[in-house]
Amino acid sequence: MRITKIAIVAVVVMLLGCDTGNRVDPFFQDYFIKYYGEDGNQEGVDIYVNDDGSMILLGNSSSLTELSIPFIVKTDSLGNVLWQHQMGSRNETAVDVELVTSGTHQGKLVVVSNVGTDAESKIRLTIVDQSGKGIDSLILPTNAWQAVKSVTPSSSNDFIVSGYAAPDPVRNSPLSPDDKADIISLRVSQSLTSVDTLSWQAGEHEGFAVKAFEIPLQGEIKYGLFGYSDRPIDLSSGFEDKFEVIVVNVEGIQSVRKNSGQSGQKQKASRAIQVPASQEDGFFMIGTNEDGSNRDIFVTKYSNDLSTMKLAQTLPYGGKMEGVAVASAIREEGYFLLANETQDNNNRNIFLVHIRLDGSKVWSTTFGTDDGDDTAGAVAALKNGRIAVLGTIDLETQKKMALIIVNKNGGFSN
Amino acid sequence: MVGKKIIGCFLVLLTFSAAPLFAQDECELTLARAQEEFNEGHLYGIPGLLSDCLEKNQNTEWRQRANLLLAETYLLLEDPLGAEQSYLNVLRANPEFLPDQSRDPIDLVYLSRKFTASPIFSFWASAGPNVSPVRIIHDVNIGGEPGTKEKYTLKMGYQAEAGFDYHYDEHISASLGVTFASTVFKHTTQNLFGQNKDIVEMTERQSWISLPLSIKYSDNIGRIRPYGYLGFAFRTLLTDNVNIKIYNRDLKSGDEIASSDKQSPNLNFKDKRQSFNQALFVGGGVKYKYGLNYFFVDLRYSLGFKNMVNTDRRYDDITYRWTYVDDDFRLDNLSISIGYIHPFYKARKLKHARTKSVLRKIKKDDNADN
User: Lowest CB count within 10 Å: A161, A286, B190, B276, which one?
Assistant: First the structure.
């Protein structure tokens, strides 16, 4: 009898130690890697997080039959697909998605994309509702070659489109053979019925407006065009890429131009964000510092009125880095920077680093392998402290849009 | 000349090889004479008569009969120590010897109840095939689409096992063994990136060393003896190799699907697994008595207790290349084995003689006589 009792007690104790659904924490629900796509390859370029935690993933699909076509996915907060589909047309590359915050399309999404080829490129705006239904779209009429980097819904219910165009011979007279681009910013009405030029820069040989923000200055709404150009800083300077902010009013009249960068090296911006009050307000830019064959992340932080520049520095993390995107932390101090890290075999990995407000590193992590060319798209800080990274993972047989969600330390568990 | 030598050698060999047979015949004659002496009541000379043959004759059947005669002789001579020693020798010659109550003298039956030769330990070894059902704790998907389907398929592995049983009594024993097992299962993801599109097959081969500890209940009568047991095993993962095959299926034209396939080399998953695990197991089978030993067929189901997945390594280079992510799962095992049991019989005097039933019979017989 005694041996039977011992056996029963032992079995009960052992059963209590069994791993069950309640005993194994489902970390994978909060922190995960998920792939999205369809036939062919899909690359992730931008992410927008709705207030309810659902996410809009924007990318582009390519296959044997389609050179490039925008691909958009909406997921719940756990990364499960709510809907997904292609949009636009062949030879179209989506670059940015934003929420329309006011006007007739309030709550809907606006997507900007480049339509065409290297020989001919135009900008398209597409309005999509939260159920994925296309509402309206417009290819901006132009005779010039134009490329877009981002769209900003304005408080006056317009869309401010930022990018660059082929140099205008009139504005760049005499036109240099080295001149390849003019920074442009276009204003499109929310009804997609009117388009006008907010700003058309000249004097640079290359450059890109990566984002426009409304900036209240001297009691007036103005637009800050954040990007980069090789415009000479003064009469004694040569053409050298530097981060650049140009401020224009609603009529497009320019009032401020600021540069940041390091002399003798090139700094090319890729993304700019508006920093919330919790992170000392202002604007944060990320890009790449090119010093010969070296590549490092370069960042600049401006105050709200652009009067002070807190950070303008190269962040050397070793290896070849190409700064791609940035997000302000929500629960932590500082920013999450996203970059492409080029390996010795020229394949890239996705590099995520958390920096404090003073630019010092908290932690960093990489996603991807040396065997694949894995690239960064966008990063977003989520309300519960998680970090969402959208990128492209080069799998063995195809490339797929990847949503990677990690904890506040860059890991996949608590 | 040569022929004569060969014949001579043959005769010499025949003489030496036949010598034990002659000795056996001689001891048989001696035992027959001793039996006659016993029957005639000439008891005192019997031990001396048999002593030479007991020293040189190794035939177990003969030794059983001789020692039994000696035990009966000593009982009649009222030499209990001699009787007990002779009965122990009977059990050493035949561990399963039991006197027949209807044929043998009751005092021999009474004596037999003070002794046993049942094994304290038995050695066993077995081998056979197994399958490893997967029980999912949490389903983890690599694709975000709801239409993605996953399933696990059984694949056959094998195991070899050896160990010892400690016999608590004739029915209950505790068993401790060591098992080497190779387990295999397959995980398939379907409808990845669209209905009827990509398929990812992952085949995992593991090798384990386990220490199974169990309590067993066995029947102890008959040639075929069923048994059942319940136990717990500590398992250590030795190796874990995985092959992944990707069928990248895209629409080519119309409804035609073009598949670009790729198979991985052997991928080491050991770091992605928990190295130590435990299992509760239940099983049973039948033993077939063959001489003093047994053959057996055993069926066992093991319930894996712990999550197999090292969750810290769920997402790694495998995920970035081979479109695969682990579910949280426990690994069970269903095995069938064929084996052999060798009991170590030990003739010994019992601490608590089981003589009550004999005493009851003597009393009953006395009452019947009166």
Answer: B276
